[in-house]
Design a protein that fits this description.
GO molecular function, one term: oxidoreductase activity, acting on the CH-OH group of donors, NAD or NADP as acceptor
Domain NADP-dependent oxidoreductase: 50-191
CATH superfamily: NADP-dependent oxidoreductase domain
Region (Disordered): 1-53
Structural class: alpha/beta
Biased composition (Polar residues): 1-25
Radius of gyration: 17 Å
Number of helices: 8
Family: Belongs to the aldo/keto reductase family.
């Protein structure tokens, strides 16, 4: 599976963050994840649907790592109706001028092919405005991806999917995406181990 960096900061479940009981504890936690182990770059995912963008932004500002050494991903969860405006709130919370990856998250939110296509056109605008270096999708199945490919001027760089030994999707979907020039990034890769 392709990964955008050598090391990826994994999100801590919301329940564990709530145990910390304070925003400053969450900032310290994200600061440790942003600093991470020795590496050339560090990735942090901060979709606001996870409630982490503000804390990640503060941790980035408090770290000594130059922006060009960080790889920041966030997602459009809500706000599909006005995708070009959606990253503004995220960028403000993250205290950044751009993110490295901006993903359309969960096509089931919008439901229709037309809605997916309109949202993707909006994401292409976000990239053209320089608010995202790369754009992609998350949790898109083949029929969602096909609808998007019918109209896109810029193909998604990546499709972030749940992918592990119990959910491989390798029969035809992953090879098909690669034929389209779309890489796969996985989440819950260790789920079978951690949930066993």
């Amino acid at each position: 599976m392709a990964t955008p960096s050598q090391w990826q900061a994994q999100l801590v479940p919301q329940s564990k963050l709530q145990d910390a009981n304070s925003s400053s504890a969450r900032v310290r936690h994200w600061g440790r994840l942003v600093q991470g182990p020795p590496r050339r770059s560090s990735e942090s995912q901060a979709p606001d649907s996870y409630g982490t963008e503000r804390e990640v932004g503060l941790a980035i500002q408090q770290s000594s790592i130059p922006r060009e050494k960080l790889f920041i991903t966030t997602k459009v969860e809500d706000g599909w109706e006005d995708v070009p405006a959606a990253p503004d709130a995220s960028l403000e919370k993250l205290q950044l001028e751009y993110v490295d990856f901006y993903l359309l998250h969960n096509p089931y939110v919008i439901g229709s092919n037309e809605g997916i296509q309109a949202a993707w056109k909006g994401l292409e605008t976000v990239k053209a405005q320089g608010k995202a270096k790369s754009i992609g999708i998350s949790n898109f199945q083949r029929h969602h991806t096909e609808a998007l490919l019918e109209i896109c001027a810029i193909k998604p760089v990546i499709n972030q999917l749940e992918f592990h030994p119990y959910l491989q999707r390798a029969n035809d979907f992953v090879p098909w995406m690669r034929e389209q020039g779309i890489e796969v990034s996985s989440f819950k890769t260790l789920a079978p181990i951690t949930l066993a």
